[in-house]
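Collaborator request, handled under Task 6.
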Amino acid sequence: MKLKNALVAVSALVSVGATAAYAETLTIATVNNGDMIRMQGLTDDFTAKTGHEVEWVTLEENVLRQRVTQDIATKGGQFDIMTIGMYEAPIWAANDWLVALDDLSEDYDVDDILPAMRDGLSYDGTLFAAPFYGESSMIMYRTDLMEEAGLEMPEAPTWDFVKDAAIAMTDRENEIYGACLRGKAGWGENMAFLTAMSNSFGARWFDEEWNAQFDSDAWNQTLTFYLDLMEQAGPPGASTNGFNENLALFQQGKCGMWIDATVAASFVTNPEDSTVADSVGFALAPDAGMGPRGNWLWAWALAIPAGTEKEAAAKEFIEWSTSKDYIELVAENEGWANVPPGARTSLYENPNYADIPFAQMTLESINSADPLNPTVDPVPYQGVQFVAIPEFAGIATQVGQEFSAALAGQQSAEDALAKAQVLTTEEMEAAGY
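C-alpha cells returned to the collaborator:
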C-alpha cells in the first residue's frame, strides 16, 4: 500500500513537472469588440485547464488589421494567434501564411460550425481559422420611437421606408438621430457597410472584365442616398463613427435605427449597458427591390500564423475559445443572450437560446447573404462586403477615405466617386488585372 501511494505521488509530481515544462505564454492579437473583451475575462479557465498563460494585444479594428497584416507578411512573429476574418483567411492560407486547422479534436466537432462560416474561413476545403463568432448585419431600432412616429417596421423593409422612418424619428433638439450608420474610413468600417448597401442598389466593384464601376449610376444612387440620409437623420460627426462609436450612441438612446453587425444585438439589449434595452426591435437589412439585401457576411476568427513555435498550445486555445464548452461557459457567467453568436449550428438548436429575441433574425440574416453571388449583375469575385483579392484592402481603404470625406462635407458624391474610379483603376492596372 505504501509503495502504491509512493508511486501515485511520484506520478503526480511528474505530471505537474510536465505541465510546467510545456506551459507556454501565448500572445494573441484581437479586436476591441465586446465579445473579445469578455473572452479575455474568462481566460483564467483556459489557464487552469492547460497551464498556458495568455498575453493580449487588443486593438481598434483598423489598427488590428494593419498590425496583423504587416506582421504576417513580413514574418514578424509577434503573435501566436491572430484575430482575422473571412477576407484574410483564404488569401493568407493560399500564401502558406497560416497553420491548417485540420487536426482539431473529435470533441471540438468541426462539422457543427455553420456552413457559411466554415466555407468562408477555408481554403481548398481545409479550415484555416476558427470562428469565434459569426455575423451578418441587420436593423436594430427603437420600438418606442417607431411607434411615436406612427410607423411599424416591416420584417424586411426597403431603403425608402428606412429613410422615411429615420427622418420621422429624428429629434435633433433632444439629440435623437434616426439613422446611425458607419462613416469612419476603412475597408472593414464604412466600406463594409457601403459595399453591402451598394449590392442592394445594383452596384458592384468590378464588371466581369475587372473594370472599376464607381462611374456607374448604381454607385451614384448608393452614395447619394447614403449621404442624403445621413444629412437629414444622422448624428453630427458621423464621418468618424465606426462600430463602437455607433454602439455607444445607440446604448445612450441617441439612435432611432442602427444598421450594423448582428453581434451587436446582445449589447443593445443588455440592461447593464444599454439605456434602451427594453425597447429594441430587429429587422432584416433593407433592400431596393432588386434581390440582394444590404447585409454582409463576416466572422471574427482565430488563426495561427505559420512559423510560430507554440503551435500546439495555440491550437489548444483555439479549441477552448471557439468550442461548444466555451459557449456554455459564457452562458453560465453572463447569460445565454451574451454567448458568441453565429458560429455553431448547435447554438440555434439549443432550447436555452430559442427565446433570445434576436437569435432567429441573426440566423436568417447570415443565411440570406450569398458571397458567391453577392450582386445583381455578374461579377468575377466572391465576397459580400469585400472583394476577395489581395489588392482589395489597400484600394478600399483609399476609397473609404474619399467617401468619409464626402460625408464630412469636404467634397461632393460625384467628386468622391470620380476619385474612387481613378484610384481603383490605377491600382488594378498596376496589379496586372
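The cover message to the collaborator said: "The mean pLDDT is 94. The longest helix spans residues 2-22. Please let us know whether this matches your experimental observations."
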